Amino acid sequence: MTKNQKILAVFAHPDDEVFGIGGTLAHYARNGASVTLVCATLGEVGEIAEGTRATPETLGQIREAELACAAEALGIDEVILLNYRDSGMAGTDENKDPRAFMNAPAEVVVKRLVGIMRELQPSVVITFDPQGGYGHPDHIAAHYHTVAAFEAAGDNDRFVDLGTPWQPERLFYAVILRSQIEKFREQMAAAGEDMSDFENSEQQGMMGWPDELVHLKVDTSPVADLKLAAFDCHQTQFGGENLFSTMPESDLKEMMHFEYLFQAKPEPPEGLVLSGLF
Predict the structure, then answer these.
(1) Dist CA 19 CA 167 (whole Å)
(2) How confident is the model at residue 264 (pLDDT cuts 50, 70, 90)?
(3) How many CA within 13 A on the CB side of residue 241?
(4) What pLDDT is attached to residue 256?
(5) What are φ and ψ of residue 74, in 5° steps?
(6) Closest alpha carbon to 263 in 187, 150, 183
(7) Distance of CA 246 to the CA centre of its chain
């Protein structure tokens, strides 16, 4: 690979760049691709793990530093912050905050993303699937805004003030398979962990991607240590007694051995199997 191969990843919160896709980003960065991450919020209303120094007032600032740490571990070249506010989980009061990413005008967000795509000229764009992995409003917003920007970036008639149109070649969704979710649930249940949040999401059909709808399986075992190091950066989310922090390191690394992507654009032919992002 060369630095001419560029990846743009668009996610919602610090730690999204690790969970599900961190190994892929680290793999391609290690092999010479240029990786840029867009993060829509600072995760201001996320969890705060016991033993960390964050408070509700400082969490966003601390998570920004954690994101920088994780990006360095993964080899990400640049992090672009959109600086919207974390919307919180679906159904919470934070959803009503006018500053929340889920409430940002679509045309404004899409224009910002189009500007980034035309400036950076990535070949590949990666974001969430339509359910945002597990139904988080910000994940879903990131999905729809990124898809719209991908389609508009190469359109001569859209956002003419943003410079020369640029059409990325492929749009991928980073996905967590239903079989992965089930295996994780079984491991955690066996360890006596409370899995009610996972079960509620499963009942609502918002967790896990169909195993048969995958176009690219990336072997990330050679960079599992980099992904684990990036996880460790996010202490407010994965420190203390978090589910992941209580897992044996061997089990955690096994979970990181493969990552999966669905090619959304161009529309994939039936039976498509890819050997790489490019």
Answers:
(1) 27
(2) very high
(3) 5
(4) 72
(5) -85, -15
(6) 150
(7) 22
Helix (H) or strand (E) holding 174: strand 170-175
CA separation for the pair 26, 219 (Å, rounded): 11
Q: Which residues pair with 205 in a beta bridge?
A: none
Helices (H), the chain: 22-30, 59-74, 106-120, 137-153, 178-190, 196-203, 224-233, 235-238, 249-255
Please state, in angstroms and rounded to a whole number, the distance separating the CA atoms of residues 176 and 180.
7
d(CA 43, CA 221): 28
pLDDT at 205 over 60: no
pTM: 0.91
**CA torsion angle for 200, 205, 206, 208 (degrees, to 10)?**
100
State how far the alpha carbon of 124 is from the alpha carbons of 2, 169, 223, 264, in Å. 14, 6, 20, 11
- Paired with 109 in beta bridges are none
Instruction: Return the DSSP state at 75.
Output: T
Nearest one of 95, 90, 168, 102 to 135, comparing CA atoms: 90
Question: DSSP code of 146?
Answer: H
DSSP-assigned states of every residue in 195-221: -HHHHHHHHTT-S-B-TTS-SEEEE-G
Q: What is the mean pLDDT of residues 174-193?
A: 77
